[in-house]
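Intended use. Records like the one below are meant for learning the mapping from a protein sequence to its folded structure. Do not use them to infer anything beyond what is encoded.
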Amino acid sequence: MYKRTLLQDLAINSHLRIQIPVLISLLSPFFGLNFVVGFIFCLRFIAVMIKRRNLLQWLGLSPFFWPLPLSAAENYRLSETFSPGNRFKIQTATELSGSMLFTPPNQPSKQIQIKGKSQIDFDETILTLDSSLKVNKSLREYRKVELSRTLDGQNQETILRPQVRTMVLLRNGSKKIPFSLEAPLTWNELDLIRTEVFPCALAGLFPLRSVALNESWNAGLESVQELTDLEVLESSQVVCKLDSVNLVNNRKTARISFLGKASGINEDGPNQQILDGYIFFDCETRHLSFLYLKGTSILKNKEGKDVGRIEGRYTISREMLPAVQLDTKSIYEPDANNTRLLFESRETSFSFHYPRNWRVTSQSDSQATLDQSKEAGLLITKEKPSRYLSSAMYRDEALAFVQKQQIRIENQSAIEPVNGTPGLEFFSWDVQIEGRRMHLLYFVYRTGQNMFTLASRCSQESKLNLRSDIMMIANSIKPTEKSS
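Structure written out for the chain above:
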């Protein structure tokens, strides 16, 4: 942006601004002034009004003394860039309500009501950028996380435990991968952060070129996908427009509205979303300072018919903080330990850690099952200590089951202790199941007054990698208060 001269300002809407001094000049003889003096006096008056325009706006008098904005023909460059060490204070709030069609297993479909709200407050520090200068890693320090929802009359709450409130967020395309520097995340904590809007990905709401007031442009697809949380964005007709540039809290701020529809697929299936909102862009610090979104999500079935409708409001308040000098980046890198997940449930009497490429598929008071692929699975069972007086008893029972299934055993290992974990022993077999060479791995774990058994299977080709995964899971099992 630039500061215009008086002549440039007079050139804007000159048919009005020149006619005014001419009219006053014609009337000047009635005030004891000649035509030329009146004309010059009026020009000087206009020049003073240009310099005093901000004061008139503050007094609320500009509609009376200056009805035409100075910025009418000015172009604005609105864009946000990032550097490692940039910091922001961010607050988000969500409210939603609606209904969707739900089909329980072996039961008729029914319409269920959904209602929810959330408040999240955190500081975010930019750590690294990718080759296109987009943020691909940031550090978040959460102060407040409150999320509650009612699903078919049942209340659900998600919290962020104190020990995981400092975490790193990786971004790869539209995917967000959080991990904590202090402790493993639970699946609910992972899902909470994964589905939260990433403010740095909203830069696509800004134009790629300089724009004038009331000029429009298409919203970037990446930003639309971020706002809608669509896993696959199939179409977007979201249009942005520069509405105004005014003083907001004594800061020059641009208001950009956006409106339109987007279609695609999310975790609930085919989906169409209607977006209606606006953002504030701080022209001094050059960052998105506020976002308001009123959204409608229309759920569809495979035939394209509407099966649900959810409406909500979402806001982001974003304040730029003083930048920081970053320490070594090595502590912010993901590895097998800090990306583990924690399984902990009120329904189950034990907890354990597991890799993210595994999935907990069922749980009960004394059992949990996990799958890694169609050919890899694990069953964890809390046993009565008196059931197996030795690991050999468990091995003999497992052997009898395998032989009953007419599974051919090619190789057997002896029962061995796991180094570094007292009470944990294992044995394994290489077998053939329906022509497939498989690896069966078993554990017996005695800790205090509790006893656990683990039975797992995987293909021979993947046994080296999956064996270390299962060994880690077995090492991490701990009885909970429910078990005692």
